[in-house]
Design goal:
Blueprint (H helix, E strand, L loop, with lengths): L10 H19 L3 H14 L13 H14 L22 H40 L4 H15 L8 H20 L10 H11 L3 H21 L5 H20 L7 H11 L2 H4 L13 H19 L6 H16 L4 H23 L7 H23 L4 H15 L3 E2 L2 E2 L12 H9 L6 E3 L1 H11 L11 H16 L5 H7 L4 E5 L3 H7 L4 E6 L3 E6 L3
Parallel strand pairs: 3-4
Antiparallel strand pairs: 1-2, 4-6, 5-6
Helix pairs in contact: 2-4, 2-16, 3-4, 3-18, 4-5, 4-6, 4-14, 4-16, 5-12, 5-14, 6-7, 6-8, 6-14, 7-9, 8-9, 8-13, 12-14, 13-14, 14-15, 17-18, 19-20
Length: 537
Amino acid sequence: MPPKSPQTETPSDAATLKRHTTLRWSQFLIPSVTDLLFATLLLGLSCGALGRLLLRDASIGWHIRNGQQMLLTHAITRTDPFSSTMSGHAWYAWEWLYDVLIAAIHHVFGLNGVVFYTAAIIATTFVLTLHLALRDRGNLPVTLFLLVLSLGASAVHFFARPHVLSWLFTVIWFSVLDSAERRPAESKNLFWLPILTVLWVNLHGGFLMGFLLLAIYLLAGVVSYFTRDEPRDESRQWLMRLGVCAGLSFAASFINPYGYHLHVHIWRYLSDRFLMDRISEFLSPDFHGAAQQCFAVLLIAAIGVLASATRRPSAARLMVIVVAAYSGLYATRSLPTSALLITLVIAPLLSQSISEAAVNVRLASWLRGFFSRLDSFGVRMGKLEVQLRGHLWLMLVFVIGLFACMHHGRLGSEQFINAYFDDKRFPVEAAEVIAQREIHEPIFSLDYWGGYLIYRLYPQTKVVVDDRHDLYGAQFLKDYLKIVLVQPDWEKVLDEKQVNWVLVPSESSSANIMRLTPEWTVTHADATATLFHRVRK
């Protein structure tokens, strides 16, 4: 029998080729957990009723208008344009780059685009956190559980604001530092940090978190240098590289429109005890809320993991957990970044503890069996997650959402995205009345309504105050609270600021008192807000 030609394909070869082809296609067509997480967060935070969650904070209003002004004038804002009381005063618009970006998005896609963009940043942050934890040998179900807790803790600050970019930058920053410390071959990535600093310092004041992480790793490196018994050459080289990177990053932070004045301004703002003790997001979290309770569970999990782990985390990682825990307990606005950092550190440790428990003969057989099944399931899911790398569905969902934003939030006849400010939370009806009656005198209102009023009424009408507390300062806010809380001399403060129009919540104490004050008359009232006009004698 003549030998078979090498080109001849046997049935088994054809079947193998067919299986490989099917497997390759399945890797692109089957959605991974990463795809599902991204799609769930992106659609959940941008579509339907949940889409309005991101517009619960109205400061996005002045961000949009400031960006529009800069796009029109081709100049960075340096004095306040929105307030009658601060007009002409120096204003450090330290998020100017975000303002330009969000104004451009708003110009093309409207509020739907603003919400969709914010949802995409949040989704990217949590998907990246999942990916990094899995890369560090985190068990997929365990990591997802911790990530859900992080999502719950972060929900308290799911707003369309530039701070969501700081969440993403914090995760990237930690990843670069941690990888460089544990894998010397990746230490060259440290020099991306000064480049990231230039972006971060012009996008949001949260760039200070980057310096805090650098300080943690520098301190951990110094501790390691003086406590290790083996040769210190490796520690010395690491400290030198990290020190150079820290110096370059610090120098890069001065590449902003305000130079070192920005650093001085932020320091004065954050060290003002009156402001820090009264701005709600700087106050310690109230653990009666669901988001705060998620953070508490995450903290308890971290304590349990650290107490039971056989492999002690590095000094840097341990200090990251301590600083993240303190930050989250100190200020509500720190909950998202704190939760993300804790998840990145403890997910691999908890996964390892479960693997060890699966073979620990000192445990009861049923408990050992449970841990064994959980570990095996996590390993299988982790391998599958690595294989499903096409991310077709991730890209498809993003493109569909973008298409809807380009068509006023609609997909055919269906309203897919419908972002707007809630008229039960903001004075939507009253603002429409102000615009229709062409009231151009300054309006005094609540600070957290100011952003919406700027968005709706500027430039025809200015506000007296809004939520840019660093601009107004402590003394101004003391006067503001006198009016809102109807404290002694509240009318005198209004006189000093030459206020003739006041817009306050209809059920507030200030509205009740002003109804009883002859000098003020109601010109509009609805379920949310009441507009008062001073009748001068």
